[in-house]
Amino acid sequence: MKAWDADGKPRKPRVLCIGAQKAGTSWLHEQLNAHPKIWTTPFKEVHYFNARHRPQDRKWLPWHFREAVRATEKRFAARGQEMPDEMVRYLVDMTAEPMFTPNWYRRAFAAAPRGMLPLDTTPEYSTLPEAGVADVAAFLPRAKFIYLIRDPVSRAISQLRMNLGRRKLLPKNPEGYLRHIDDPDLADRGDYASFIPRWQAHFGRDRLLILPYGRISTDPEGVMREVEAFLGIARHAYPKLGARVHAGRAAPPVPDELPALLRDRFAGQYDFLRERFGPAFVADLDAPAPSISTPPARPAAKIAAPVVAKGGAHAAGMLKWADKPQPRKPSVIGIGAQKAGTSWLHAALDQHPQLWTSPLKEAHYFDHLFCPENRAWTGRNVSNSAANLRARYDRQGKPVPAALSDYLARLEAPPQFTDDWYRAIFAPAPPDARPVDITPAYSGLPAEGIAHVAEYLPDAQFIYLIRDPVERAISQLRMNLQRKGRSPSGAEEWLNEADDPVLDSRGDYAGHISRWRAQFGPDRLLFLPYGMIQSDPAGLMARIEGFLGLKAHRYTGLERRVFATRGNAAPPAHLDATLASRFADQYAFLAENFDAEFNALLR
């Protein structure tokens, strides 16, 4: 049991960890509890200020304290110890009315011996209104505050899983999460743009330390050194720096579209964090973005060939797996454009015996290196793709093959987006098969990124699918609206939604194609019109076979649509004309650089 002064006088806390929820406060509480100069209450969260200033919290606070008492009792029982009498009296006092008075709050820290700093870790404090933060400043004129901040999307997903678990509403499949994403708590608990300025208005840097959550995993000792310096306490050797606290119960992975949908909703939070703290801090909200330079090499993970039952996981790329996997580079790259048939192309190329496609369609290696704005989500893209692949086996009632499990674990483990990591993606490709990477985001690489691709992959060939600019933009618009859970009700709303610069940037053929042509000739770069997928899919694949020097193959399911956008009423007819005018330069470029037959097949 922590040092205990049974005759101690009521006192105020000197250290408060104020948030954010699901941003590592339990981990920080665990570390500080191990420090000889920090005193923690038997239960982590005291909830004094939010009980006074957030009336909506009062309905669940009785449950919280009942659970806190039960958890304390279980902790002693698990150690085979009887709870000391002074601890019993303390818990009885803390749960007796009246609660949440100034004297009650002081009594919560009365047992802290002199010379120790009492700690209150209550993440709800970060959400206090202005009057609440002013009350904190007046009531605790000497206290110091620590605020942990996590990536808005990751934090919301973690909270969503926790909330559903507590309510016993965890979904049985990934899509089940989508029914709960409008829970206002997800936005409320992570409203950094509102909360942080309130706290910074009352406390300077000498009293308010703001830290990014990602450093808990990448540099936990560095985090604690910074906390110790901020609090003015001596260095300490913490025994559980690498331990996860409250990691959450087992649950299905979230669907692929959920992170993108939430990212759109929280765009304002990302803008605020970048403006307030800078890109380096934002990169640490989950994990730091690797630099372009390659870190010291480490031995590549050995991936054994999996045993796959007949008729098994062809879609997972496992019917073609090298006996002795060796890291290697891809030699076929599908580079774009978004919403121009790259998923269909991936499914078709996966069938050819002379090609090998990764179980994860999009590697995002080069855009992670050269498009800094993508780094906020490329790591999660890998994790979510791996989680969904595991869920596919789970839905079929089959275990994930050990080799595939090892493969996914290697790709999810840091460091990611290094040369070794990228080569490991294609390690399972048989020696006689050409590895394929299809990542449409590559089409938008800057000139220096494409130059790097040319140097790094001197023998690779590239396939670029092009779709009619208006059709592509409308398809992307509908996908984005679906991810945001919005459905425009009239022509004006459609026009407002279409005023999104992303529609222009993802379909900037005039800028993108010119850059790729500057590096690669027709022997290495093949342009194909999207319309052939519907009008002549076999002919399109024959062109690809001729370009890549492959044997003719009989494909199945070429008529099947992949990732067709669901929902949303059809946009108004005049939206086509509006976008056609907006993309006039794109149409002029395509007409000038491709013949009439090619342009006719863009739809």
UniProtKB/TrEMBL annotation:
<protein>
    <recommendedName>
        <fullName>Sulfotransferase</fullName>
    </recommendedName>
</protein>
<dbReference type="InterPro" id="IPR037359">
    <property type="entry name" value="NST/OST"/>
</dbReference>
<dbReference type="InterPro" id="IPR027417">
    <property type="entry name" value="P-loop_NTPase"/>
</dbReference>
<dbReference type="Pfam" id="PF13469">
    <property type="entry name" value="Sulfotransfer_3"/>
</dbReference>
<dbReference type="GO" id="GO:0008146">
    <property type="term" value="F:sulfotransferase activity"/>
</dbReference>
<keyword id="KW-0808">Transferase</keyword>
